[in-house]
Predict the 3D structure of the following.
Amino acid sequence: MNEKNYFTIVVPLSPDAQKIVQGNPSAVPLRAAVWSQAAERMKPLLGGVCSRFSPAAAPYGEPLHLPFGVALGGAEAEQFLLCYFHARENQEEEIRSRTQAIRALGRKVGQFHPDEETTLTVMAFRSSDPELHKQMDVAQRFFSDDITAAAGLYYLGFGSNYINEQQERQILSNPEAYALCVAELQPVEEAAR
């Protein structure tokens, strides 16, 4: 695997943690605590999604220096937002890829437009298809907020793999209340070599 695989967790900061960032932007002990909290939440990824994970030194190919792979929104708003938008873009691409994989297993039966902005497509699937069952299991776990089915981005404060626009605005309008932790994942198959 040539391209690095990143997993990003958005971590809410307590009011006390936000004060620490204001008084000490480097806040190494706080970064270590955020990494520890995120790493604890990522443990279910081990063995299935990855063989190990570590703090990303330069996530998404950007020349960023993030001790413990953590960007503090109140100290590094630019890095926080840059990493967040990379993670969101990767998440959307992964969701598109997963959706396409499910669609490829079906047969289009029909399509109609209930209004100008909406297109509904009816698909038929073989319920006995093991690949369909596998893809649907991942989709169900994603929407059940199972971190092992996350598409590279997890929102710790919401306990969710995906958030709505209002929740995202909450994060983007108040980045100082959040930290972003980026881990580099080593896929299971690479560990076997």
The chain is about 40% helix and 20% strand.
